[in-house]
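Journal club prep, notes for RB
We'll compare a predicted complex against what the paper describes. Inputs for the nicotinamide-adenine-dinucleotide case:
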Amino acid sequence: QFERIGFIGLGNMGSRMCNNLIKAGYNIAVHDINHDVMTMFSEKGILTKESPVEVAKASDVVITMLPSSSHVLDVYTGPNGLLHGGDGLRPWLFIDSSTIDPQTSRKISVAISDCMLKGKEDDWETPSMLDAPVSGGVLAAETGSLTFMVGGLEKAYAAAKPLFLSMGKNTIYCGGAGTGSTAKICNNLAMAVSMLGVSEAYALGQSLGIAASTLTKIFNSSSARCWSSDSYNPVPGVMDGVPASRNYDGGFASKLMAKDLNLAAASAKEVGLKFPLTSVAEEIFTELNDAGNGTKDFSCVFRHYYSGKDE
Ligand code: NAD
């Protein structure tokens, strides 16, 4: 069923996910516009292809892990894209694990189901698409412990599960096309807002004279307890092993959080309801990014409360 897997987008996440597929024994063909990374893979004996369409011609399943919606659209529907030529595609399944907006995921899913599988002209069958973004950063990609949130046909999800479990620990089926992307942006929206809520409460508490370590004991045994207070605390020195205790290095980059909040804000606009916390969170993380903190972990938003003030 999975004679060959194509993998496109060998960046921080994709290269590690691809390595786990290689370790699991899959036969892989890769493509990236970065030639250095292509050379790295070809030196390991992995088949490299010069364009997405070349990957499609050589693969039964194609996985993409790209920066944003425009790159994903380009790789699927651009010139020399995966769907170039339309009918007669070899891959029966496309999996996009990039974090993008649900509208683009649905658009690509429709474009794919408009194509025909190679050799199936008599018995019209369409290839399938799963939007399958991940939770967990570079470390989880390296250790194969990502969580996949998956939208698309349930039978395609069931067929793809062994692939997900070669790159991750958990997979959750979310529903039809676009629901995986929806789950991802909703998760990160909730994470951003709870991190902001906890940071704001610490900043107020400290300003009123209570130590962050004391406030943490209160939060974690009271109703304010959440992941941002008990597992990923944003105040330096309160918890070992978290980015706040190493000058906010490593972890989940603020620029990626700003990107995900941008996607949430765009989707919020589409549904026509008011989402005030989405707008505020987007604004604060964009500011943080613009102030040069883009590569710092997103919990550095705690410092935002002290910016412009002598500590
Ligand atoms: P990255 O920028 O490190 O890697 C992206 C790769 O895609 C690069 O190697 C780039 O050369 C390649 N690329 C770009 N355009 C291309 C094209 N047209 N054709 C072929 N290759 C192309 O990004 P990343 O950190 O690996 O993130 C990938 C996706 O995963 C993003 O959507 C991101 O939001 C999401 N994500 C990242 C993290 C994280 O911690 N880094 C965590 C969860 C989700």
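Talking point for the session: The longest strand covers residues 168-175.
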